[in-house]
Amino acid sequence: MSAYAVGHLRAAAQHEDIFAYMERIQDTLDPFAGHFLVHGSEVEVLEGEWPGYLVVIGFPDLDKARAWYDSDAYREILPLRTRHITGDVVLADGVAPGYAAADTAARARQQAG
């Protein structure tokens, strides 16, 4: 099942480290079949607040996503970003093909009894 690394990154001043991080990140993703789905896009806020930018990286599964984040290659470049940009990064499983929220609601309703 697909998995995703999702980053909510706050705006920061441009810095040479950020440029180097962006130039090098794809090489860290390739061994894990990671690919950008959203990269640094400003979002259209419909509810609440969202200061900053969105990054979404897709992986074949959660194990590959974790292995990428924990890889020596990514750990080497990570400080280039974290020294200059604050934010939140999470890993999450996607849903299986044919997923229906109504089915999940029915199971939850049954469990709630």
Automatic annotation (TrEMBL):
This is DUF1330 domain-containing protein. It comes from Streptomyces agglomeratus. InterPro entries: Dimeric_a/b-barrel (IPR011008), DUF1330 (IPR010753). Pfam families: DUF1330. Coiled coil: none annotated. Residues 2-95 form the DUF1330 domain. Gene3D superfamilies: 3.30.70.100.
